[in-house]
């Protein structure tokens, strides 16, 4: 019993143990994710929640890499541990708690670690508990995963999208237009979230594609547009392209083309009837350099009202047509019902009209009028769908039915007598039987058959069929309309053809007799020429001599067994060898002066000898020798001529050494003669090839004689060899020519050449390269490289000299007006004449001048033009004669005596005799300038317009004109030699930069202390560097913050890259590289003759206007040249040109503000006004009706300023923008001075503030009479400050925060003056603290 109890207790305990232990967590891992650091140890801890001494354990640690590979690391039991040999030094297994430690982490340790553990308790034998855990381990510095997005959509590999191995690089090949968009790269790893890169926009250039021309007017058929006479038509040309294409409209008429307009829209107004013209829309993409064309024909013909309506609103025709057809078919079905009832008298209806009562019948004219038929015949006609149809209308009278029909149908109503006559016609039994057989059986079924219902069903089916076939009907209608349009066009073409044929017939009749006479004369001349050629063949007959010699040799070989004949045979052989030597000499003569007959005889002679291939080898050797001998003799002749003696040492020199002895004076004539001689050699080779091509065509005709087959095969082989040899010789000969000319070009240093001489050299080499391109298709890389080297070397020295020359011009410039005509532009200068010729850089100017005189020759190559005589290297002096430039005006103002009487006389004319003070007379024509304007016109000008020259002649100086001429010369060189285009444009930009920097240096900076009021801000910007000159006075040398950031950046860039500061004595301790200093120019100094400190001349306002406006004019001329420069600039360098125009050229007009600000700051005595304002008593107790004296003083200053402006305008025209800038600066300074004076007030009452408003209004009223400038600058600035006195405490605090354009002193004074009136001391402290808070961030 006791044993039984112990057993039960043991079982209960076991069950309790199982319930509590087995179902609980036996092992615990604190963290299932571990982030380790590469190179550091990492422990994977495991906590056991069971006593190890009461269990048996068995388990494994395994590692699964991200790639999926799984490796068992450790296998363990309670007694033993087995670690994989590969990881013994890398892992450490803690046996008591089965934890795993990685001694040194690396990238391969990343992944999942699995723990599989089997547990068996001692007291539960056979019960094994299995535990599994997975720990994820990441290593910092793991591989980054990249993902590419396009428009926020992930990209995956495809046939066009390729990625690098780590996906950090995306390759797109080939690129298509749908690839454009925003691209981003996303980088991520398991530790951190994805990081997005910046967006990169991909723009794909393509097109133009799908070019089409559309118009909303007229009728279009294919590529033909038909319109009514006098109608205004607009055509739109559209193409798919990026960037957008440029469109050109071209008219093709009378075998000639003419450019009409540019742009996507073309306006055409038709005037004549039966007129057809062809037009062409051409689209061109400036980036892809592709173009597309769309051609169409415009026909002017009367479409008629019906067709016009159809073309304008075709959609309204289609429903009407469908309704009409449906109505006709439904009425036809009803007609069928009527006829069948009429044709069956057994139903009791004797007369159709009596049966239907009020129903009427309407007949479409057709066969009814041409033939008579019975009632049954009518039914038969209906069954076969004849056109004779009766329309049934049960609601309308015959007259209404007629009104509903179209006028085109011309319907009429048959009478009862006509119907009766139809029924009385003789009956054809066979026809009636056919009609009866054609009727459906359902009509004979029984009397209960509802025929009306059956007919309606049939009609419905017919109507459905009509609606189903409607698209076919519409399509057929369109085809008919198109056919009619084509017929109209054909009629127009036929009319024009007949007219042209009649004209041709009349012309040919008169010319035919002349042709017959010329043909007869030609026959006579041909016979005479044949006789002359026969006579000529008697001289130097090489083939005849060889033929005779060969015949003799053949005859001698037959009898060579005779001793005398044998000796004769050997002599004949010697004679043949001598003939070959003479032939070789004759062959060499063709290399310089090719003669067809001479060469024909020589080739025929070689053919008789059977040495055609040998002759060709010898010919190429002679051409090579001819090139060498020719160039050597030409250069040697000039060297000996320049040396002045017959020294033989030059004849022993090599050609390359001989070229170095050419003097500068003889360089161009020698080069010209050298190219002429080489041209003769190449022309001879060209004519040689022509001769062989012509004879190959003649010899290629097959001969029927079989005996000559073998001889023909040999001839074919010889022709093939000769052809290949000649084609290969083209490149060899041109290569020899290039090497000879290259040695000549590089043999002389051309850096000291005159500009015109160097342009001539470029011109000659350019023509030579064109000859090479036509000779063998070569791009002349050797010549281009050699002339480029010389051009770059020459241009650097030339540009350096021109910069120094420009500095000298600027330092001696007195900034007086250069008198040019009002219509002056750069196209009138000789330096820009080349732009009007619109030629390619490879064509020389002289040749272009010749070609313009002969349009028919422009289509011919050089070899075709000069085949018989002439030379492309002849110096065309007649085209290089200087033309007289007509750019200077008769005087600087183009005014008459009336204008002089209004504006008074010049100061400089006081010591000139009276007879010389008359109108200026043109030195070329002797004419007196015409009177331009009347006295009333001059006096009625606006007050702010000081223009003396009514024609607005450009304001420029001699230096400006010199810079423009330099730009023209630079562009000439660039136009001839494109490879140096970037270097030239860079130098052109330096010319403009230096001119801009000089104008700013001379007139935009002023370091003299000038009394002016304290003006801390302008336009919301703090003033720059200031210095105190007097109480509350400051000055900024750069124009009080008026220089924009873009202009300041441009000036700094010019100073750093172009100005040599060391030459000025600045930065003496800093010495830059010598190479950098060579590229820089010292800063220019203003001429001592220019006085900028005289108040009577408004501190040199005339010189300032001339300098500034000449710079603006120069910038405008650069703007006009931008398109031409853009075409010459290489694509890779175009951003430089765009940056130059956007950051330098466009800033020229911005120099007006700082330059004219200096005048405005000195023209008015602002400090005197401050002193007068300080003496005014503002704490008055009664309202004053009279303004203060300082207002009159200030207005008097402005009147004096206005008078001085008028005096200056008599010498130099002051443009309206300049006068506006001057007035704006002066008024702005005056208003700022008023606020400063009001801010100096210690005490002020309400009446004092009213007096301030009265003074300011009086000032504005009188000021508006002096100037037209509206609105008055800074008017609100003064009014707001005066009105702020009346603000309450809260409003004053808000005012201080919102109006930061006022200085701290002005705001503080405003608070202090208001103390005691409506602001107490506490509020004053609060407001002053607010002002201090505003000022604190600035400090």
UniProtKB/TrEMBL annotation:
Q: Name one GO molecular function term.
A: SNARE binding
Cite a GO CC annotation. Answer: cytosol
Which intervals of the chain are annotated as region Disordered?
695-714
- Report TM segments: 317-339
Which superkingdom heads the taxonomic lineage of this protein's source? Eukaryota
GO biological process terms, alphabetically, are: endocytic recycling; protein transport; retrograde transport, endosome to Golgi
Keywords for this protein: Coiled coil, Membrane, Protein transport, Signal, Transmembrane, Transmembrane helix, Transport
Which chain positions lie within coiled-coil regions? 562-589
Name of a matching Pfam family: I-set
Q: Where is the Ig-like domain?
A: 96-203, 208-297
Write the signal peptide boundaries. 1-24
Q: What is this protein called?
A: Syndetin
Originating species: Collichthys lucidus
Its lineage reads: Eukaryota, Metazoa, Chordata, Craniata, Vertebrata
């Amino acid at each position: 019993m006791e044993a039984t109890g112990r057993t039960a207790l043991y079982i209960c305990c076991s069950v309790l143990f199982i319930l509590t232990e087995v179902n609980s967590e036996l092992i615990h891992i604190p963290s299932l994710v571990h982030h380790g650091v590469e190179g550091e140890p990492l422990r994977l801890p495991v906590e056991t929640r069971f006593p190890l001494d009461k269990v048996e354990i068995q388990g494994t640690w395994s590692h699964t890499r991200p790639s999926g590979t799984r490796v068992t690391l450790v296998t363990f039991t309670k007694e033993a541990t087995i670690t994989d040999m590969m990881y013994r030094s890398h892992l450490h297994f803690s046996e008591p708690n089965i934890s795993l430690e990685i001694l040194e982490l690396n990238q391969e340790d990343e992944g999942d670690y699995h723990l599989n553990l089997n547990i068996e308790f001692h007291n539960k034998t056979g019960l094994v508990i299995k535990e599994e855990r997975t720990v994820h381990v990441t290593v910092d510095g793991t591989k980054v995963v990249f993902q590419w997005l396009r428009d926020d959509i992930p990209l995956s590999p495809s046939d066009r999208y390729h990625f690098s191995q780590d996906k950090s690089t995306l390759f797109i090949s080939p690129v298509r237009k749908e690839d454009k968009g925003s691209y981003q790269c996303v980088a991520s790893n398991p530790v951190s979230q994805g990081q997005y890169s910046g967006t990169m926009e991909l723009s794909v250039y393509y097109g133009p594609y799908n070019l089409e021309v559309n118009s909303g007017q007229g009728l279009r058929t294919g590529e033909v547009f038909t319109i009514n006479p006098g109608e205004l038509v607009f055509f739109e040309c559209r193409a798919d392209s990026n960037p957008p294409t440029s469109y050109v409209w071209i008219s093709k008429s009378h075998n000639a083309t003419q450019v009409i307009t540019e742009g996507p829209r073309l306006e055409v107004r038709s005037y004549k009837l039966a007129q057809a013209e062809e037009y062409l829309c051409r689209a061109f993409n400036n980036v892809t350099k592709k173009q597309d064309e769309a051609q169409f024909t415009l026909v002017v013909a009367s479409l008629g009202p019906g067709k016009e309506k159809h073309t304008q609103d075709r959609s309204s025709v289609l429903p009407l047509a469908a309704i009409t057809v449906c109505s006709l078919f439904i009425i036809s079905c009803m007609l069928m019902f009527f006829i069948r009832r009429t044709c069956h008298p057994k139903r009791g209806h004797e007369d159709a009209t009596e049966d239907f009562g009020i129903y009427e019948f309407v007949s479409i004219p057709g066969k009814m009028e041409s033939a008579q038929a019975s009632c049954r015949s009518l039914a038969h006609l209906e069954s076969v769908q004849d056109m004779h149809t009766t329309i049934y209308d049960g609601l309308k009278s015959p007259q209404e039915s007629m009104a509903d029909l179209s006028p085109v149908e011309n319907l009429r109503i048959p009478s009862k007598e006509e119907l009766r006559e139809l029924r009385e016609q003789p009956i054809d039994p066979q026809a009636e039987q056919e009609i009866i057989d054609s009727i459906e059986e359902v009509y004979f079924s029984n009397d209960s058959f509802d025929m009306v219902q059956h007919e309606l069903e049939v009609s419905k089916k017919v109507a459905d069929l009509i609606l189903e076939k409607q698209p076919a009907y519409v399509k057929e209608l369109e085809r008919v309309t198109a056919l009619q349009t084509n017929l109209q066009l054909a009629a127009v073409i036929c009319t024009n053809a007949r007219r042209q044929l009649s004209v041709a017939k009349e012309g040919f009749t008169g010319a035919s007799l002349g042709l017959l006479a010329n043909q007869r004369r030609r026959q006579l001349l041909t016979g005479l020429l044949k006789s002359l050629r026969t006579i000529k063949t008697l001289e130097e007959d090489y083939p005849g001599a060889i033929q005779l010699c060969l015949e003799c040799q053949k005859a001698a070989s037959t009898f060579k067994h005779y001793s005398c004949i044998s000796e004769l045979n050997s002599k004949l052989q010697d004679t043949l060898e001598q003939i070959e030597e003479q032939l070789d000499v004759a062959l060499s003569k063709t290399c310089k002066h090719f003669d067809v007959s001479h060469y024909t005889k020589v080739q025929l002679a070689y053919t008789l000898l059977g040495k055609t291939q040998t002759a060709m080898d010898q010919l190429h050797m002679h051409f090579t020798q001819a090139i060498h001998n020719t160039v050597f003799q030409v250069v040697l002749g000039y060297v000996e001529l320049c040396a002045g003696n017959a020294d033989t040492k030059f004849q022993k020199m090599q050609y390359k050494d001989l070229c170095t002895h050419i003097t500068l004076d003889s360089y161009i004539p020698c080069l010209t003669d050298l190219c002429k001689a080489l041209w003769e050699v190449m022309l001879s080779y060209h004519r040689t090839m022509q001769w062989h091509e012509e004879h190959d065509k003649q010899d290629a005709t097959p001969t029927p004689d079989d005996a000559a087959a073998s001889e023909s095969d040999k001839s074919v082989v010889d022709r093939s060899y000769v052809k290949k040899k000649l084609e290969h010789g083209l490149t060899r000969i041109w290569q020899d020519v290039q090497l000879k000319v290259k040695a000549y070009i590089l043999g002389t240093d051309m850096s000291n050449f005159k500009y015109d001489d160097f342009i001539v050299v470029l011109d000659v080499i350019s023509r030579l390269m064109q000859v090479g391109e036509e000779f063998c298709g070569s791009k002349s890389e050797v010549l281009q490289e050699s002339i480029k080297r010389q051009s770059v070397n020459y241009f650097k020295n030339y540009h350096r000299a021109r910069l120094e020359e420009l500095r000298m011009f600027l330092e001696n410039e007195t900034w007086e007006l250069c008198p040019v005509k009002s219509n002056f532009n750069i196209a009138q200068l000789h330096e820009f004449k080349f732009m009007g010729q619109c030629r390619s850089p490879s064509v020389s100017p002289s040749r272009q001048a010749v070609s313009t005189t002969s349009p028919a020759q422009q289509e011919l190559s050089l070899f075709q033009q000069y085949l018989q005589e002439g030379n492309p290297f002849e110096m065309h002096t007649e085209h290089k004669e200087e033309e007289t430039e007509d750019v200077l005006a008769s005087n600087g103002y183009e005014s008459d005596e009336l204008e002089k009487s209004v504006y008074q006389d010049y100061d400089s004319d006081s010591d000139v005799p009276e007879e010389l003070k008359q109108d200026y007379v043109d030195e070329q024509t002797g004419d007196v300038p015409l009177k331009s304007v009347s006295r009333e016109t001059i006096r009625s000008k606006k007050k702010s317009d000081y223009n003396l020259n009514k024609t607005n002649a450009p304001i420029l100086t001699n230096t400006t004109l010199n810079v423009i001429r330099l730009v023209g010369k630079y562009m000439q060189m660039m136009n001839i030699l494109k490879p140096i285009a970037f270097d030239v444009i860079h130098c052109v930009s330096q010319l403009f930069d230096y001119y801009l920097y000089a104008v700013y240096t001379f007139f935009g900076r002023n370091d003299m202390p000038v009394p002016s009021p304290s003006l801390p801000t302008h336009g919301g910007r703090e003033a720059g560097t200031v210095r105190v000159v007097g109480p509350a006075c400051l000055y900024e040398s750069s124009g009080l913050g008026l220089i924009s950031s873009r202009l300041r950046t441009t000036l700094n860039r010019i100073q750093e890259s172009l100005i040599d500061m060391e030459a000025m004595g600045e930065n003496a301790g800093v010495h830059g590289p010598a190479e950098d200093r060579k590229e820089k120019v010292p800063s220019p100094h203003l001429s001592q003759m220019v006085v900028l400190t005289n108040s009577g001349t408004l501190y040199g306002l005339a010189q300032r206007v001339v300098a500034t406006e000449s710079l603006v004019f120069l910038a405008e001329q650069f703007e006009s040249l931008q398109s031409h420069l853009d075409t010459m600039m290489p694509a890779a360098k175009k951003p430089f040109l765009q940056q130059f125009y956007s950051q330098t050229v466009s800033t020229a007009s911005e120099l007006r503000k700082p330059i004219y600000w200096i005048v405005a700051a000195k023209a008015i005595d602002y400090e005197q006004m401050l002193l007068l304002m300080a003496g005014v008593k503002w704490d008055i107790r009664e309202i004053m009706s009279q303004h203060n004296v300082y207002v009159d003083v200030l207005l008097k200053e402005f009147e004096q300023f206005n008078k001085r402006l008028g005096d200056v305008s008599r010498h130099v025209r002051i443009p309206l923008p300049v006068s506006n800038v001057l007035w704006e600066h002066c008024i702005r300074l005056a208003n700022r001075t008023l606020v400063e004076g009001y801010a100096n007030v210690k005490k002020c009452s309400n009446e004092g503030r009213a007096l301030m408003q009265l003074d300011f209004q009086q000032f504005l009223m009188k000021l508006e009479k002096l100037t037209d400038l509206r609105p008055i600058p800074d008017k609100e600035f003064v009014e707001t400050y005066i009105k702020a006195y009346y603000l309450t405490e809260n409003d004053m605090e808000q005012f201080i925060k919102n109006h930061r354009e006022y200085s701290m002193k002005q705001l503080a004074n405003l608070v202090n003056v208001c103390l005691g009136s409506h602001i107490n001391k506490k509020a004053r402290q609060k407001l002053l603290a607010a002002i201090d808070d505003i000022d604190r961030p600035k400090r």
